[in-house]
Write a structure and sequence with these properties.
- The structure holds 2 protein chains of 2 kinds.
- By secondary structure, chain A is mainly β.
- Chain A has no helices and 11 strands.
- Chain A has strands spanning 4-6, 10-13, 19-25, 31-38, 42-51, 54-57, 64-70, 73-78, 87-94, 104-105, 109-113.
- In chain A, strands 2, 4, 5, 6, 9, 10 and 11 form a 7-stranded mixed sheet that branches. In chain A, strands 1-3-8-7 form a 4-stranded antiparallel sheet, with no helix packed on it.
- Chain A is globular and about 40 Å long.
- Chain B is mainly beta.
- Chain B is globular.
- The chains are: A mainly beta, B mainly beta.
């Protein structure tokens, strides 16, 4: 079974802190994604990576950065956490661009910024 | 820009009913469409994937169809059970590899 693992289920951070959310997948997938999910707004793409060291901005990249130094790991960085970044963060991975490629999600990280 | 819409936003049915969830998308140039289930506070679980060249996929009591030319997909759930209560999301995969999600349909199946 494909496994996508996010480092924390719940996280509480203070305003202004630098926050790292880690995601690891074990299926050698090329593509990895970071989404945030908020009530009434659905899943919104923050950043997308299609290969090591490659990244693309999604719909809401402001206030975030990402790092992909190894194929299996995709990190989301909140440079200076703010209360409006309190949200559920979801990581996903999929293989390449073929029509047969299924996306798999981690269990989510509920981040609260106080 | 691709937009994905799911109707209805919420649905409540008695146990045993058959039901249909709808998903529509604006750009037919997709690689595939995937249906997911999400339980409260959890991540997404993949249910079915339909490739762009396929018309439908089945898994147990679930059947998903795809009409790419009209930009529509449906998820049919047969003989619904209380354990089916969850939020169901559809997502289309673009040629860039990006996944674009609908806002989901929250289903409640009453015993």
């Amino acid at each position: 079974d494909v496994k996508v693992t996010q480092s924390s289920r719940y996280l509480v951070k203070r305003t202004g802190e630098k926050v790292f959310l880690e995601c690891v997948q074990d299926m050698d997938h090329e593509n990895m994604f970071w989404y945030r999910q908020d009530p009434g707004l659905g899943l919104r793409l923050i950043y997308f990576s299609y290969d090591v060291k490659m990244k693309e901005k999604g719909d809401i990249p402001e206030g975030y950065s990402v790092s992909r130094e190894k194929k299996e790991r995709f990190s989301l960085i909140l440079e200076s956490a703010s209360t409006n970044q309190t949200s559920m963060y979801l990581c996903a991975s999929s293989s390449g661009q073929g029509a047969w490629t299924e996306a798999f999600f981690g269990q989510g990280t509920r981040l609260t910024v106080v | 820009k691709q937009e994905v819409t799911q109707i209805p936003a919420a649905l409540s049915v008695p146990e045993g009913e058959n039901l249909v969830l709808n998903c529509s998308f604006t750009d037919s140039a997709i690689y595939n469409l995937q249906w997911f289930r999400q339980d409260p506070g959890k991540g997404l679980t993949s249910l079915l994937l339909i490739q762009s060249s396929q018309r439908e996929q089945t898994s147990g009591r679930l059947n998903a169809s795809l009409d790419k030319s009209s930009g529509r997909s449906t998820l049919y759930i047969a003989a619904s059970q209380p354990g089916d209560s969850a939020t169901y999301l559809c997502a289309v995969k673009e040629d860039t590899g990006k996944l674009i999600f609908g806002q989901g349909t929250t289903l409640q199946v009453k015993p």
